[in-house]
Amino acid sequence: MSRIFVTRPIPEAGLAILRAAAEVEVAPTADGDSTPRDQVLAGARSADVHVSLLTEAVDRELMESAPQLLGVANYAVGFNNVDVAAATELGVPVTNTPGVLTDTTADLAWTLLMAAARRVVPADAYMRGGRYRIWGPSLMLGADVSPGGDERRKVLGVVGFGRIGRAMHRRAQGFDMDVLAFDPPMKAIIEARPDVEYAGFDELLARSDFVTIHTDLNPSTHHLFDAAAFARMKETAILINTARGPVVHEAALVDALKSGQIGGAGLDVFEREPAFHPGLAECDNVVMLPHIASGSVATRDRMATMCAENAVAHLNREHAPNCVNPEVYDTEAYRQRVAR
Fold first, then answer.
1. pLDDT score at 155
2. Between the CA atoms of 168, 171, 172 and 175, what dihedral angle is there, to the nearest 10 degrees?
3. Which residues does the annotation mark as catalytic?
4. Would you place residue 78 in the very low, low, confident or very high pLDDT band (cuts 50, 70, 90)?
5. Same domain for 220 and 78?
């Protein structure tokens, strides 16, 4: 019987589909722990399809050690954990779960924006600590997101104007914000829209009251937000990151938060997850979450379903619906792999 290996537990909505198609082995790992590398390698060598999470690397070593592997189904939109170039060379299709988490992630990004602006987390701690004695006009002052008291339209800078960036733009419309967008490959599309203004990166930083990151991680975006970037931002500006941790130079961010160079931050991802830079947790102007941007029940179930459908397509030697390297299907390496 065909076998599918899952590196860590995924929702039952996906596992049920997998079990209907093959024998399924799920690494016996608690949800808060990573699966040891030797277990991941052993699972890949014994399976026809490898279902991976972002926390486990799918590299050349793994794929070369599993010549019977028909495909990799990644349970995530991102696939930085997979060596896609090596997969294509070796004839291994790789899939992800795009689209389904757009609104859920944008909701969480907007939650971070609002929480950081209105100092929700320190205010909650203030209440829980029993320190609230009397209302006062200077108590927990935050920043408006809507025009608010000064009747000035605030500016949202969106770095990366893909699905989630555009979803943030839609939310900003409800708060009467002006929106700037930076995304060089989409410049012409952005400039053709009447409801958003294209801006260069430096201009966006200088003009934005809030900056939200929705770009992918690649050599050009690694540490895009460094000390020089923070120096260009307003002292009151708030940075939101629900994309990829290494887009932000975390040590520089800590310095900027502590010195008051920027006003605050809301983070769902970190440079070296699950660790975060020393001093970050001591900053009361940052909201920190454990990578839960796609964390609604319905969205995680739909991700599991998409991942499982991709895995079954791999198993059946069909073109998977969400393949990130579709050129692999025309390679001799793939033809040899599925002929075994």
1. 98
2. -160
3. 244, 273, 291
4. confident
5. no
DSSP string of 55-103, one letter each residue: TS-B-HHHHHT-TT--EEEESSS--TTB-HHHHHHHT--EE---STTHH
Q: What is the CATH number of the domain that holds 332?
A: 3.40.50.720
Domain with 301, as residue range(s), is 3-98+297-339
Q: Are 326 and 92 in contact (CB under 8 A)?
A: no
- Rounded to whole angstroms, how far apart are CA atoms 227 and 225? 7
- Are 218 and 272 members of one domain? yes
Dihedral sign (CA 4, 290, 257, 239): positive
Q: Which of 25, 92, 91, 60 is nearest to 310 (CA)?
A: 92
* pLDDT at 29 (0 to 100): 75
Quick one: pLDDT at residue 267? 98
What is the number of helices (H) and of strands (E) in the chain?
Answer: 13, 12
Residues 25 and 78 grouped into a single domain:
yes
In the chain, how many domains are there?
2
CA–CA separation, 157 and 230 (whole Å): 14
Task: Quickly list DSSP for 4-20.
Answer: EEESS---HHHHHHHHH
CB count in 10 Å sphere of residue 191: 11
Which residues are bridge partners to 225 per DSSP? 248
